[in-house]
Amino acid sequence: MKITKLLENVAVKKVLNCRDVDISNVSCDSRSVTKNTLFVCLSGERHDGHDHVPEAEERGAVAILTAREIESPLPQFVVENSRAALAVVAGNFYGNPASKMKLITVVGTNGKTSVTEILSEIFFFAGHSAATIGTLGYKIGKDRSKGVLTTPDPLDLNKNLAKMYEAGVEYVFLEASAHAIYYDKLAGIKANATVFTNLTQDHLDFFGTMEEYAKTKLSYFSLQNTSLAIVNSDDVYGQKLIAEHNLPIISYGIDNPADVFAINVEEDSSGLSFTVNAFDRIEQISTPLFGKFNVYNVMAAISAAMYFGIPLPVVAKALERLSAVPGRYEVYYVKDRRVIVDFAHTPDGLDNLLSDVRKGFDGRIVTVFGCGGDRDRLKRPIMGAIAAKYSDHVIITNDNPRFEDERAIAEEVKSGVPECASYEILLDREKAIRLAFDLTNPGDTVVIAGKGHEDYMEIKGKKLPYNDKAVLQKLSR
Tens digits of per-residue pLDDT, 145-159? Predict the structure, then answer.
C-alpha cells in the first residue's frame, strides 16, 4: 500500500523528505519492524518511540509517523496526535473493516462484558452472525480466543475486525474502556450505536479524580464516534448524557422515565423475571441471570436489539436461553454450599453483588476477595467496608498484586472494615477459598469476588496459572 493511501484521513501537519513509498507493515514497536514498515512513534510513561527510530531504520522502516520532527533521512509525517493517527492508519491498513459491519460499542464502569455477551447471544439466536471484543477476548459465534486488553490496541483491533468481516460477521459488540477512549484507540471508527451502562469509581490511579474519569468516558459520546446513544436513565451520568448531549438517544431504566423500562422485577433460585415495556411493546422476560444490575444489562441489550430490528418476542425467547456470562455471577453448588464467582472489582460492582446475595438468600455469607495492585488505592478501604456490611465473615486475600506488596494491599482493604466485623487476612487465595468452606455449613453462601474469568495471578510481572473455578473443582471431588 502506498504511504499516501495509508495516511488518508490522517491530519498531517508537516511532511519531510517526501516520497510515496510502499508500505507492507505498520508498527509502533521497533522490535517488530520489518522491511517496508511505517514506524509510528508513540510516547508513554516508560518509553518514547522517538528514541527508537534508529533501530526501526536498521530493521527496515521506510517511513516515520511522528508527533515531532526528528533526525531521520526517511519520509517523515508529523501529526498532532500520533495515537489517534495510528488508529486511523490501522483502519486504513486493514481496509477499514469496522465500516463494513454493524458496530455496537459499550461504555461504562460495570456491565460492559455482560452487555456485549448478552447481545451476541440475542443476535446469534435471531440468525445473525455476531462477534464480541472485550475483557473475555475475541468471540465469533460460539468460538472464543484470548485477548490481552479490554479494548485492543488499534493494529490488533483492526486485524481482528478484518478477520471477523472475512468470516461473515454482521454485528460486532465491542467494549470501549476508559483507557481506550483516553488514548484514542477507536479514532477513525464510528459506531452505529453505543450503550452507556453506568459510571462509578474506578481507575483513579490513572485519572486522578472522578471528574476526569467521567469526562473521559462521556467524551466518547459525540456524532464523530457514534450515531446513537443507548443510555441508563437511572445513572447520574446517564442523566447528564440525556440532558446535555445532541446525539439521538434511547433510554432504559427502572426508576426514571425511559423508552425501555422494567416493572415487577423478581428474583428466585432460577434467575430474574420482570415485565418490560419497550417502546410501548409489553413482554414478560425470564432469564437465568441474577442480580438487579443484570436487569439493567438485559434492558440495554433489549434496547439495542430492537433498534436493529429484532422483534421483542424473539429477544425474550433468546433471553430465556442465556447461559451465564463467564465470571459474572456464576452460581455453583459445592458441598451443599451455594458458591458465587464474580468479577466484581469496583465498589459499585461489589455492592451490587453482595446486596443482591444478602437480599435474596438465607444462610450465612462468607466473602473472599482482594484488590489489585498498581491500581486505584482509594477504593480498597471502601470495598473492605462494603464486604463487611453484607457478609457474616470476610476473608481478605490476594488479587493480582502486580508490583505492590500483597500484605500492604490487604492492610489497606482492612482499614475500611469496622473493628466489630468478623474478618481475617489469608493471602493464599486457594487456601482462603478452602477456609470459606470450613467456616460455612450446608445452605450457606460463599462469594468469591474480583477475578471471575481470569486464569492467572499477576505477581511481579509474571502471570502465574490460577483460576477460582479450578479451585472449586478440586473442592467438589
Answer: 988 899 999 999 999
